[in-house]
Amino acid sequence: MAQIKAVLFDQDGVIIDTERDGHRVSFNMIFKEHGFTDEWSVEYYHELLQISGGKERMKHHAKTKGFSRPTPDHELDDLVKAMHKGKTALFVELIESGKLPLRPGIHRFMREAMAAGLKVGVCTTSNEQAAKAITGKILHDIKFDLVLAGDVVEHKKPDPEIYNLALSKLGLKPDEVMVVEDSKNGLKAAKAAGIKTIVTTNGYTENEDVEAGDIIVSCLGDAGGERAKMRKGDIPDFNGVVHVKDVMNLFSK
Prior knowledge:
CATH superfamily of the largest domain: HAD superfamily/HAD-like
CATH topology of the largest domain: Rossmann fold
C-alpha cells in the first residue's frame, strides 16, 4: 500500500457539530425574516440531512410540504437563492460568535497531520463563505492546502465528484489520502472515490449505516477531554484518542 500523504475533512458534523444548532437554527431565522412561519424541528431536519446541500433541502421542503406562504414555481429558484444567501450570513455570524465549538480532537488531529507532513484539506457541500469562516478564523493556525466548498462541483455527496476533484488538485492517488466524514452520504462519496475513511459519528448520524467506514468512532478524542468510543477499527492499544500516526500506519498496510 502507498503511504498516506493527505487528509481531507468534511466540515459540518466533522469539524464543528453545526447541523442541529447552526444550520437548522439559521434556516428557521431566515424563514421568519422572509415572512414564513415554517420551522424545521430537530427530527424533521434529520430527515432533510439525507439531501446534500442547503438550497436542495429548501427546494425539497417546498415541493413535498410547501412553504407556509404559497410560492409559484417560477419564483422558487430566486427565493431559495435569496434565502440561502441570508441564511449563510446568519450561520457565519453564529460561527464567528464562538457559540459552536470544535468537535473533540479535531484541532489536535489537524495539528498532528501538519506535524506529520500531510497536506490538509476540506471538502464540504457547505457554502464557501461558511467554510472560509471556519478555516480562516476558527482554525487560523492550521495550514489548509485545499478548501473545496459549495457549488465548486455540479454533483454533491454521495457523488464522489468533490473527492475526485480534490485528488486531481492535490495530484495524489486515492490510496495516498484519508478522509474524515460523519455521515452515510459523505462516506459513500469518499468510498466511491476509492479513499479510506474515518467516520466520526454525531447525534444525527450515529444510527446511520456507516459500516463501510474503515474506522468508526464517536469522535477523534482528546486526552484531556472527551475520549472517543470505537465502533470499528484496528488501532493497537487504543485509549480513546485517534492519532494521525496510528491511522497512517493502519491505512498504509
